[in-house]
Write a structure and sequence with these properties.
single chain, alpha/beta
Protein backbone atom coordinates (compact mmCIF):
# COMPACT_ATOMS: atom_id res chain seq x y z
CA UNK A 1 0.00 0.00 0.00
CA UNK A 2 1.35 3.40 -1.02
CA UNK A 3 0.93 6.61 0.93
CA UNK A 4 -0.04 9.55 -1.27
CA UNK A 5 -0.26 13.15 -0.11
CA UNK A 6 -2.55 15.32 -2.23
CA UNK A 7 -2.94 19.09 -2.17
CA UNK A 8 -5.94 20.90 -3.64
CA UNK A 9 -5.84 24.66 -4.21
CA UNK A 10 -8.59 27.20 -3.78
CA UNK A 11 -9.90 27.01 -7.34
CA UNK A 12 -10.21 23.21 -7.01
CA UNK A 13 -12.54 23.59 -3.99
CA UNK A 14 -14.18 26.87 -5.00
CA UNK A 15 -17.78 25.74 -4.39
CA UNK A 16 -19.88 22.78 -3.26
CA UNK A 17 -19.81 21.05 -6.64
CA UNK A 18 -16.04 21.42 -6.85
CA UNK A 19 -15.64 19.99 -3.35
CA UNK A 20 -17.74 16.95 -4.31
CA UNK A 21 -15.64 16.46 -7.44
CA UNK A 22 -12.43 16.60 -5.38
CA UNK A 23 -13.93 14.19 -2.82
CA UNK A 24 -14.67 11.71 -5.61
CA UNK A 25 -11.06 11.89 -6.82
CA UNK A 26 -9.74 11.32 -3.30
CA UNK A 27 -12.06 8.32 -2.82
CA UNK A 28 -10.86 6.85 -6.13
CA UNK A 29 -7.27 7.12 -4.91
CA UNK A 30 -8.28 5.33 -1.70
CA UNK A 31 -10.13 2.60 -3.62
CA UNK A 32 -6.96 2.00 -5.63
CA UNK A 33 -5.39 0.73 -2.42
CA UNK A 34 -3.56 3.83 -1.23
CA UNK A 35 -3.47 5.60 2.10
CA UNK A 36 -4.39 9.24 1.45
CA UNK A 37 -3.53 12.47 3.24
CA UNK A 38 -4.94 15.68 1.79
CA UNK A 39 -3.87 19.29 2.37
CA UNK A 40 -6.52 21.76 1.30
CA UNK A 41 -6.59 25.51 0.68
CA UNK A 42 -9.42 27.93 1.44
CA UNK A 43 -12.31 27.97 -1.03
CA UNK A 44 -11.83 30.14 -4.10
CA UNK A 45 -10.97 33.72 -3.14
CA UNK A 46 -11.84 33.30 0.55
CA UNK A 47 -8.42 34.43 1.80
CA UNK A 48 -8.57 37.63 -0.27
CA UNK A 49 -12.11 38.28 0.91
CA UNK A 50 -11.06 37.86 4.55
CA UNK A 51 -8.15 40.26 4.00
CA UNK A 52 -10.54 42.80 2.49
CA UNK A 53 -12.88 42.37 5.45
CA UNK A 54 -10.04 42.95 7.90
CA UNK A 55 -9.02 46.08 5.99
CA UNK A 56 -12.57 47.43 6.34
CA UNK A 57 -12.34 47.04 10.11
CA UNK A 58 -8.86 48.53 10.49
CA UNK A 59 -6.07 49.64 8.13
CA UNK A 60 -3.50 47.85 10.31
CA UNK A 61 -4.94 44.56 11.60
CA UNK A 62 -3.04 42.97 14.48
CA UNK A 63 -0.88 40.14 13.03
CA UNK A 64 -1.99 37.59 15.64
CA UNK A 65 -5.67 38.26 15.05
CA UNK A 66 -5.18 38.32 11.28
CA UNK A 67 -3.73 34.81 11.46
CA UNK A 68 -6.71 33.70 13.54
CA UNK A 69 -9.00 35.14 10.87
CA UNK A 70 -7.21 33.83 7.80
CA UNK A 71 -6.74 30.31 9.16
CA UNK A 72 -10.53 29.93 9.29
CA UNK A 73 -10.73 29.66 5.50
CA UNK A 74 -8.86 26.36 5.36
CA UNK A 75 -10.83 24.98 8.32
CA UNK A 76 -14.04 25.52 6.35
CA UNK A 77 -12.62 23.65 3.35
CA UNK A 78 -11.28 20.71 5.36
CA UNK A 79 -14.57 20.16 7.19
CA UNK A 80 -16.70 20.34 4.04
CA UNK A 81 -14.35 18.00 2.19
CA UNK A 82 -14.45 15.47 5.04
CA UNK A 83 -18.27 15.66 5.04
CA UNK A 84 -18.36 15.01 1.28
CA UNK A 85 -16.09 11.97 1.60
CA UNK A 86 -18.14 10.56 4.49
CA UNK A 87 -21.28 10.91 2.40
CA UNK A 88 -19.64 8.57 -0.12
CA UNK A 89 -19.27 5.87 2.50
CA UNK A 90 -15.62 6.37 3.45
CA UNK A 91 -14.20 7.42 6.78
CA UNK A 92 -12.55 10.84 6.68
CA UNK A 93 -11.20 13.00 9.49
CA UNK A 94 -10.25 16.66 9.28
CA UNK A 95 -7.44 18.26 11.27
CA UNK A 96 -6.29 21.83 11.74
CA UNK A 97 -2.61 22.59 11.27
CA UNK A 98 -1.98 22.45 15.02
CA UNK A 99 -3.88 19.16 15.38
CA UNK A 100 -1.80 17.76 12.52
CA UNK A 101 1.41 18.62 14.37
CA UNK A 102 2.53 21.42 12.06
CA UNK A 103 4.93 23.27 14.38
CA UNK A 104 6.23 26.67 13.25
CA UNK A 105 8.19 29.61 14.55
CA UNK A 106 6.30 32.55 16.06
CA UNK A 107 6.28 34.79 12.97
CA UNK A 108 2.72 35.75 12.11
CA UNK A 109 1.81 35.89 8.43
CA UNK A 110 4.98 34.21 7.17
CA UNK A 111 5.80 31.47 9.69
CA UNK A 112 8.39 28.81 8.85
CA UNK A 113 7.91 25.15 9.70
CA UNK A 114 10.35 23.96 12.38
CA UNK A 115 8.93 20.48 13.03
CA UNK A 116 6.12 18.15 12.00
CA UNK A 117 4.75 15.66 14.55
CA UNK A 118 1.87 13.91 12.74
CA UNK A 119 0.94 11.52 15.58
CA UNK A 120 -2.81 11.96 15.19
CA UNK A 121 -2.56 11.63 11.41
CA UNK A 122 -0.75 8.28 11.69
CA UNK A 123 -3.35 7.03 14.14
CA UNK A 124 -6.16 7.99 11.75
CA UNK A 125 -4.38 6.33 8.81
CA UNK A 126 -3.83 3.17 10.84
CA UNK A 127 -7.57 3.09 11.52
CA UNK A 128 -8.31 3.28 7.78
CA UNK A 129 -9.41 6.90 7.58
CA UNK A 130 -8.70 9.42 4.84
CA UNK A 131 -6.92 12.36 6.48
CA UNK A 132 -7.79 15.95 5.58
CA UNK A 133 -5.46 18.71 6.84
CA UNK A 134 -6.01 22.46 6.73
CA UNK A 135 -3.14 23.91 4.72
CA UNK A 136 -1.39 27.25 5.19
CA UNK A 137 -1.37 27.13 9.00
CA UNK A 138 0.48 25.81 12.03
CA UNK A 139 1.10 26.31 15.71
CA UNK A 140 3.97 28.00 17.52
CA UNK A 141 5.14 26.30 20.70
CA UNK A 142 6.99 29.49 21.59
CA UNK A 143 3.98 31.80 21.54
CA UNK A 144 1.25 29.10 21.77
CA UNK A 145 -0.55 30.88 18.93
CA UNK A 146 -1.98 29.86 15.57
CA UNK A 147 0.29 30.98 12.71
CA UNK A 148 -0.02 31.12 8.94
CA UNK A 149 2.69 30.28 6.43
CA UNK A 150 2.08 33.04 3.88
CA UNK A 151 0.94 32.83 0.29
CA UNK A 152 1.39 29.36 -1.19
CA UNK A 153 1.51 27.93 2.31
CA UNK A 154 -0.77 25.00 1.46
CA UNK A 155 1.83 23.72 -1.00
CA UNK A 156 4.41 23.84 1.78
CA UNK A 157 2.01 22.09 4.18
CA UNK A 158 1.54 19.23 1.71
CA UNK A 159 5.27 18.78 1.11
CA UNK A 160 6.05 18.92 4.84
CA UNK A 161 3.44 16.25 5.51
CA UNK A 162 4.81 14.09 2.69
CA UNK A 163 8.31 14.36 4.16
CA UNK A 164 7.19 13.64 7.74
CA UNK A 165 5.02 10.69 6.73
CA UNK A 166 7.56 9.33 4.23
CA UNK A 167 4.95 9.46 1.45
CA UNK A 168 5.61 7.85 -1.91
CA UNK A 169 4.59 10.99 -3.79
CA UNK A 170 3.12 14.43 -3.16
CA UNK A 171 0.50 15.34 -5.75
CA UNK A 172 -0.15 19.07 -6.16
CA UNK A 173 -3.54 19.54 -7.84
CA UNK A 174 -4.22 22.83 -9.56
CA UNK A 175 -6.29 24.33 -12.38
CA UNK A 176 -3.81 23.61 -15.17
CA UNK A 177 -2.55 20.24 -16.39
CA UNK A 178 0.97 20.56 -15.00
CA UNK A 179 4.03 22.77 -15.24
CA UNK A 180 4.17 24.62 -18.55
CA UNK A 181 6.99 26.24 -20.48
CA UNK A 182 5.31 29.55 -19.59
CA UNK A 183 2.13 30.78 -17.94
CA UNK A 184 -0.62 29.56 -20.32
CA UNK A 185 -2.65 32.65 -19.46
CA UNK A 186 0.13 34.76 -20.99
CA UNK A 187 1.52 32.44 -23.68
CA UNK A 188 -1.34 30.53 -25.30
CA UNK A 189 1.03 28.10 -27.03
CA UNK A 190 2.80 27.14 -23.81
CA UNK A 191 3.64 23.43 -23.72
CA UNK A 192 3.20 21.11 -20.76
CA UNK A 193 6.41 19.54 -19.48
CA UNK A 194 6.41 15.84 -18.60
CA UNK A 195 9.23 16.44 -16.11
CA UNK A 196 11.38 19.24 -14.83
CA UNK A 197 14.33 19.31 -12.42
CA UNK A 198 13.79 20.72 -8.94
CA UNK A 199 16.60 23.20 -9.65
CA UNK A 200 14.78 24.56 -12.71
CA UNK A 201 11.47 24.61 -10.83
CA UNK A 202 13.09 26.61 -8.03
CA UNK A 203 14.33 29.23 -10.49
CA UNK A 204 10.96 29.43 -12.26
CA UNK A 205 9.09 29.76 -8.96
CA UNK A 206 11.52 32.46 -7.77
CA UNK A 207 11.04 34.26 -11.09
CA UNK A 208 7.26 34.51 -10.89
CA UNK A 209 5.89 31.15 -12.06
CA UNK A 210 2.72 30.58 -10.02
CA UNK A 211 2.08 26.86 -10.34
CA UNK A 212 4.29 25.94 -7.34
CA UNK A 213 5.42 27.99 -4.38
CA UNK A 214 9.18 28.34 -3.98
CA UNK A 215 9.19 27.26 -0.32
CA UNK A 216 7.41 24.03 -1.24
CA UNK A 217 9.94 23.26 -3.96
CA UNK A 218 12.83 24.00 -1.59
CA UNK A 219 11.33 21.75 1.09
CA UNK A 220 10.72 18.92 -1.39
CA UNK A 221 14.26 19.11 -2.73
CA UNK A 222 15.80 19.17 0.73
CA UNK A 223 13.80 16.17 1.96
CA UNK A 224 13.70 14.10 -1.24
CA UNK A 225 9.94 14.43 -1.83
CA UNK A 226 8.77 13.62 -5.36
CA UNK A 227 6.26 16.21 -6.61
CA UNK A 228 3.60 15.47 -9.22
CA UNK A 229 1.82 18.62 -10.43
CA UNK A 230 -1.48 17.78 -12.12
CA UNK A 231 -4.98 19.03 -12.81
CA UNK A 232 -7.90 18.46 -10.45
CA UNK A 233 -10.24 18.77 -13.45
CA UNK A 234 -9.11 15.63 -15.37
CA UNK A 235 -7.11 12.43 -14.91
CA UNK A 236 -4.24 13.35 -17.22
CA UNK A 237 -0.67 12.77 -16.12
CA UNK A 238 0.92 16.03 -15.05
CA UNK A 239 4.53 17.06 -14.50
CA UNK A 240 7.05 15.28 -12.29
CA UNK A 241 9.45 17.57 -10.41
CA UNK A 242 12.55 15.49 -9.73
CA UNK A 243 16.06 15.81 -8.36
CA UNK A 244 18.56 14.41 -10.92
CA UNK A 245 20.99 13.52 -8.13
CA UNK A 246 18.40 11.12 -6.67
CA UNK A 247 17.67 9.23 -9.89
CA UNK A 248 18.57 5.52 -9.89
CA UNK A 249 21.88 4.69 -11.54
CA UNK A 250 21.52 4.56 -15.31
CA UNK A 251 18.27 6.56 -15.26
CA UNK A 252 19.79 9.94 -16.13
CA UNK A 253 17.62 12.17 -18.27
CA UNK A 254 19.06 14.63 -20.77
CA UNK A 255 17.84 18.10 -19.90
CA UNK A 256 16.42 20.57 -22.42
CA UNK A 257 18.44 23.75 -22.89
CA UNK A 258 15.41 25.88 -21.88
CA UNK A 259 12.80 24.62 -19.44
CA UNK A 260 10.61 27.70 -19.40
CA UNK A 261 9.95 31.43 -19.51
CA UNK A 262 8.57 33.16 -16.39
CA UNK A 263 7.03 36.61 -15.95
CA UNK A 264 6.82 38.62 -12.73
CA UNK A 265 4.81 41.83 -12.34
CA UNK A 266 5.07 42.06 -8.55
CA UNK A 267 8.35 43.96 -8.34
CA UNK A 268 9.30 47.65 -8.30
CA UNK A 269 12.60 49.42 -8.94
CA UNK A 270 14.34 51.92 -6.67
CA UNK A 271 17.17 54.03 -8.04
CA UNK A 272 19.49 55.78 -5.60
CA UNK A 273 20.74 58.75 -7.61
CA UNK A 274 24.09 60.50 -7.10
CA UNK A 275 25.76 58.01 -4.78
CA UNK A 276 29.35 58.87 -3.79
CA UNK A 277 31.52 56.30 -5.58
CA UNK A 278 33.67 55.36 -2.59
CA UNK A 279 34.10 52.09 -0.69
CA UNK A 280 31.38 51.27 1.86
CA UNK A 281 28.52 53.35 0.48
CA UNK A 282 26.76 50.41 -1.21
CA UNK A 283 27.07 48.49 2.05
CA UNK A 284 25.35 51.34 3.89
CA UNK A 285 22.52 51.48 1.36
CA UNK A 286 21.74 47.78 1.42
CA UNK A 287 22.08 47.52 5.19
CA UNK A 288 19.40 50.20 5.47
CA UNK A 289 17.19 48.24 3.06
CA UNK A 290 17.89 44.95 4.86
CA UNK A 291 16.78 46.45 8.16
CA UNK A 292 13.30 46.94 6.65
CA UNK A 293 13.16 43.18 5.85
CA UNK A 294 12.82 44.01 2.15
CA UNK A 295 13.87 41.23 -0.21
CA UNK A 296 16.23 42.71 -2.83
CA UNK A 297 16.34 40.90 -6.16
CA UNK A 298 18.35 42.49 -9.00
CA UNK A 299 21.06 45.14 -8.50
CA UNK A 300 22.75 47.33 -11.11
CA UNK A 301 25.38 50.03 -10.50
CA UNK A 302 26.22 52.49 -13.26
CA UNK A 303 29.76 53.52 -14.14
CA UNK A 304 30.88 56.48 -12.05
CA UNK A 305 30.79 59.89 -13.76
CA UNK A 306 34.36 61.19 -13.85
CA UNK A 307 33.27 64.81 -13.39
CA UNK A 308 31.29 64.22 -10.21
CA UNK A 309 32.70 61.02 -8.73
CA UNK A 310 29.12 59.85 -8.23
CA UNK A 311 27.10 56.94 -9.57
CA UNK A 312 23.54 55.57 -9.54
CA UNK A 313 22.51 52.26 -7.95
CA UNK A 314 19.26 50.59 -9.01
CA UNK A 315 17.68 47.53 -7.43
CA UNK A 316 14.38 45.67 -7.60
CA UNK A 317 12.27 44.42 -4.71
CA UNK A 318 8.65 43.37 -4.10
CA UNK A 319 6.17 46.22 -4.43
CA UNK A 320 4.91 45.38 -0.96
CA UNK A 321 8.36 46.24 0.42
CA UNK A 322 8.83 49.41 -1.64
CA UNK A 323 7.32 52.02 0.68
CA UNK A 324 9.27 50.80 3.73
CA UNK A 325 12.57 50.77 1.83
CA UNK A 326 11.95 54.23 0.36
CA UNK A 327 11.13 55.73 3.75
CA UNK A 328 14.20 54.20 5.38
CA UNK A 329 16.51 55.41 2.60
CA UNK A 330 14.97 58.88 2.61
CA UNK A 331 15.52 59.17 6.35
CA UNK A 332 19.19 58.26 5.83
CA UNK A 333 19.87 60.52 2.85
CA UNK A 334 22.18 62.86 4.76
CA UNK A 335 24.13 59.98 6.29
CA UNK A 336 24.65 58.14 2.99
CA UNK A 337 25.12 61.30 0.91
CA UNK A 338 23.09 60.46 -2.19
CA UNK A 339 21.28 63.11 -4.24
CA UNK A 340 17.75 61.70 -4.66
CA UNK A 341 15.54 58.60 -4.92
CA UNK A 342 13.44 57.36 -7.84
CA UNK A 343 10.67 54.77 -7.50
CA UNK A 344 9.20 52.86 -10.45
CA UNK A 345 6.45 50.27 -9.95
CA UNK A 346 5.65 49.90 -13.65
CA UNK A 347 8.29 47.28 -14.43
CA UNK A 348 8.08 43.63 -15.41
CA UNK A 349 10.68 40.89 -15.07
CA UNK A 350 11.14 38.17 -17.67
CA UNK A 351 13.28 35.13 -16.85
CA UNK A 352 14.61 32.39 -19.08
CA UNK A 353 15.42 29.16 -17.16
CA UNK A 354 17.19 25.98 -18.19
CA UNK A 355 19.64 23.67 -16.40
CA UNK A 356 21.47 22.92 -19.66
CA UNK A 357 22.38 26.61 -20.02
CA UNK A 358 25.59 25.72 -18.20
CA UNK A 359 26.97 24.05 -21.30
CA UNK A 360 24.92 25.73 -24.05
CA UNK A 361 26.26 28.63 -26.10
CA UNK A 362 24.42 31.55 -27.69
CA UNK A 363 21.48 31.61 -25.26
CA UNK A 364 21.99 35.27 -24.28
CA UNK A 365 22.43 36.39 -27.89
CA UNK A 366 19.24 34.60 -28.91
CA UNK A 367 17.30 36.13 -26.03
CA UNK A 368 18.44 39.68 -26.72
CA UNK A 369 17.82 39.30 -30.46
CA UNK A 370 14.25 38.12 -29.80
CA UNK A 371 13.59 41.13 -27.59
CA UNK A 372 15.16 43.48 -30.14
CA UNK A 373 13.01 42.05 -32.95
CA UNK A 374 9.93 42.58 -30.76
CA UNK A 375 10.92 46.20 -30.13
CA UNK A 376 11.33 45.71 -26.39
CA UNK A 377 13.90 47.71 -24.42
CA UNK A 378 15.92 46.10 -21.62
CA UNK A 379 16.48 48.14 -18.44
CA UNK A 380 18.30 45.65 -16.19
CA UNK A 381 19.95 42.23 -16.62
CA UNK A 382 20.73 39.56 -14.04
CA UNK A 383 22.07 36.02 -14.50
CA UNK A 384 22.73 32.81 -12.62
CA UNK A 385 24.10 29.50 -13.88
CA UNK A 386 20.71 28.42 -15.20
CA UNK A 387 18.76 31.70 -15.50
CA UNK A 388 18.83 34.99 -17.36
CA UNK A 389 16.45 37.71 -16.13
CA UNK A 390 15.71 41.06 -17.72
CA UNK A 391 13.60 44.00 -16.56
CA UNK A 392 11.44 45.82 -19.05
CA UNK A 393 8.26 47.92 -18.97
CA UNK A 394 5.29 46.24 -17.31
CA UNK A 395 3.05 46.81 -20.31
CA UNK A 396 5.47 45.02 -22.65
CA UNK A 397 6.61 42.06 -20.57
CA UNK A 398 3.85 39.73 -21.76
CA UNK A 399 4.69 40.48 -25.39
CA UNK A 400 8.32 39.85 -24.48
CA UNK A 401 7.45 36.45 -23.01
CA UNK A 402 5.60 35.41 -26.16
CA UNK A 403 8.44 36.56 -28.41
CA UNK A 404 11.10 34.76 -26.37
CA UNK A 405 8.97 31.63 -26.05
CA UNK A 406 8.67 31.43 -29.84
CA UNK A 407 12.32 32.29 -30.44
CA UNK A 408 13.45 29.31 -28.34
CA UNK A 409 11.01 26.98 -30.14
CA UNK A 410 8.99 26.26 -27.00
CA UNK A 411 5.56 26.75 -28.62
CA UNK A 412 3.21 23.77 -28.66
CA UNK A 413 0.89 22.82 -31.50
CA UNK A 414 -2.33 23.69 -29.66
CA UNK A 415 -3.44 26.32 -27.16
CA UNK A 416 -2.93 25.33 -23.53
CA UNK A 417 -6.06 24.73 -21.45
CA UNK A 418 -6.66 26.63 -18.21
CA UNK A 419 -9.55 25.05 -16.36
CA UNK A 420 -10.24 27.73 -13.73
CA UNK A 421 -8.82 30.24 -11.30
CA UNK A 422 -5.50 32.04 -11.50
CA UNK A 423 -2.97 29.21 -11.54
CA UNK A 424 -2.71 28.69 -7.79
Amino acid sequence: MSLIVQKFGGSSVADAESIKRVAKRIVETRKAGNDVVVAVSAMGDTTDELLDLAAEVTPLPAPRELDMLLSSGERISMALLAMAIKSMGHDARSFTGSQAGMITDATHGAARIVDVTPVRLREALDEGAIVIVAGFQGFSRESRDITTLGRGGSDTTAVALAAALDADVCEIYTDVDGVYTSDPRVVKKARKLDRITSEEMLELAASGAKVLHIRAVEFARRHGVILHVRSSFNNSEGTIVYDPSRLPEGAAVEESVIAGVAVDLTEAKITVVGVPDVPGVAAKIFKIVANTNANVDMIVQNVSAASTGRTDISFTLPKSDGERALTALSNSQETVGFTSLQYDDQIGKLSLVGAAMRSATGVSARLFEALYNAGINIEMISTSEIRISVVTRADSVHAAARAVHTAFELDGDDDAVVHAGTGR
